[in-house]
Design a protein that fits this description.
2 copies of one chain form a homodimer.
Chain A lengths: L1 H10 L1 E2 L5 E2 L7 E2 L1 H14 L7 E5 L4 H11 L3 E4 L10 E8 L4 E8 L8 E9 L3 H13 L2 E11 L4 H7 L4 E9 L6 E2 L2
Parallel strand pairs in A: 4-5, 4-8, 8-9, 9-10
Antiparallel strand pairs in A: 1-2, 6-7, 10-11
Helix pairs in contact in A: 2-3
Chain lengths: ~190, ~190
């Protein structure tokens, strides 16, 4: 997606050989018009699938997932990272974040998931695939069907995307980065 | 906002005399079309103000804030609830959540705020006003101007809204609830 890649080049900051900071348009400050275009692009790429709901993870997945839900006209559910006092009866799975060096429990209320749903999973980044695996685990617990996985930025030099595709999941990444070495962003065309 | 109040009546769950659960359309599952209408309504209500950016709080504020940002064509910044490894140089303020019975530190990167910005603050709920006060504190640290505060659901039987208006802030709440007693939602018309 050219619009996104141009924005990554303009506003992305390479922190080290594996971390790209996109705080200016995706996961701290958000550009709503860019998110709308991202939502339209995901809707287009998964247009042949009978998607009935979207699942993402708080917080950085919410913006692209919301716009995709708007474009596909389906509800968006975001997995929470810990249990709040008003939540009972949840599906859960654990995820380790390499960026934040912490383990979170992802939680989704059972009342929002059932075996007849066809899910599109959306997330901001795909690197080692831990977060996607946790979302897959949660959908599988609910008995629902996973129609695809939409990723805003995939780091193809990390193994998550390859592993998901080898398992047969339909993964669409809007920007694929094959290297951040020496402070330079190189896309995987 | 009639669309929102109808949805609260249809899908809101009164947990006790002070807690309304809106997990089916606002803060766990999100209805994108409703969020778009909420965004348009906030844009309309603050149309006379020279807003240049929106500030909200992860996670439940992101959806209404994003759609308001889309409608006003301005960026959206969400305050994070703890420090991530890739963030330095932040404004911060603490907030106590009565619902979750926990204290969080809200953090916004200094690089996203400057004294020339005119801010609209957006949040999902207004009850005791702790979260709004923390956002106000952060904007004031940055030297920016607060043009208004947009709230999806205000509980007018709690003091936050009254206190903010007495301080001179322009507060717009799309649904105002004056009582949740006996399991019944009564709106403040």
């Amino acid at each position: 997606m050219k619009l996104l890649k141009d924005r990554i080049i303009k506003d992305g900051i390479v922190l080290n050989d594996s971390v790209l900071k996109v705080d200016r348009f995706l996961n701290h400050q958000i550009d709503p018009q860019l998110m709308l275009e991202i939502g339209r692009e995901f809707a287009h790429r998964f247009s042949s699938k009978p998607i009935t709901k979207i699942l993402t993870i708080e917080s950085s997945g919410i913006a692209p997932a919301l716009m995709t839900g708007w474009a596909l006209n389906v509800p968006v559910v975001f997995a929470r990272k810990r249990k709040s006092l008003t939540m009972n009866n949840v599906y859960q799975s654990t995820v380790f974040s390499y960026t934040k060096q912490e383990t979170n429990t992802l939680i989704v209320s059972k009342s929002l998931m059932n075996k007849n749903e066809h899910w599109l999973l959306i997330d901001d980044f795909l690197a080692n695939g831990q977060a996607s695996q946790a979302l897959i685990d949660i959908v599988q617990q609910s008995g629902g069907t996973i129609e695809g996985i939409g990723i805003v930025i995939e780091k193809t030099f990390q193994p998550g995307g390859k592993q998901l595709r080898e398992k047969g999941f339909h993964v669409e990444s809007l920007a694929m980065i094959k290297s951040l070495e020496n402070g330079t962003i190189i896309f995987d065309e």
